[in-house]
Design goal:
The chain is of the alpha+beta class. Helices cover 26% and strands 31% of the residues.
Amino acid sequence: MPRKKENKELLVALLPKKSALDILRTEGWYHIPVESAPKRWPPKALAFYQGKVFGDQEAYKIRHFGEVQKIEIVPRKELFPGDEQNAAKAKKLYYRIQLEELQTRPAPIVSYRPRRLIFIPTTFEKFETASQINDLFDDSPLENRLWNALKYIGILAERQWKVVIQEKKYFLDFAIFCNNGKLAIETDGYTYHHDSKAKIDYDTWRRNDMELDDWRALHYTTKQVKDNWTPYLSQIEQKIAQLGGLENPENFERKVGDDQGKYITDSEEPL
């Protein structure tokens, strides 16, 4: 049975340059390296996250989207025939994704904190109802449940937040920034009697790295999240209070040089 239109696969992709939006407006296509395409492929629609180069008023927002008309594989030289500066990449293969029409949302989907996003595989249903970036993530029904609970009590968290510690990259289920510290919320994390030794070693090292980077952490199992919102939400609220309350996102700034704070500039070509 075919999926309903609103539930079809949608891919949020980065607009690293203003020129990428110009191409969408004039020629109606977007490109992704074949080797870098996300696992959920192909999408039936694309939406576009505007990077730092779009300026204070337009950066870190999703305004534009469109349904996919066709996808073909082409060499880079066909996409950019006059690009002598990147001649070494001329034979690199890309998906050229042609849209039926570039559309604009009545209200943008915003990211309250600057964050580097390359792709978010999601659904058209989530895209239509989202008001912020964290509404779009679609990897885990358990995380969706916890996210809805956090929103219900007014806790502004970041989902799938990347941290770089000792040159290692980790993704946190939820990151909550407080006035006097950082809080990570992890779901379904403690099933050691089922885990392999390698998995246990990795989790232990990861937890130690986070501790060295001054992250506090709370962990919840699937059963705890599904059974009742009240007990674990009360714990989260208590920990936030111990850390001085929620930080205002307008006061949040990345340290210069943090890997997770770097954004593509107009002179670079990430894709």
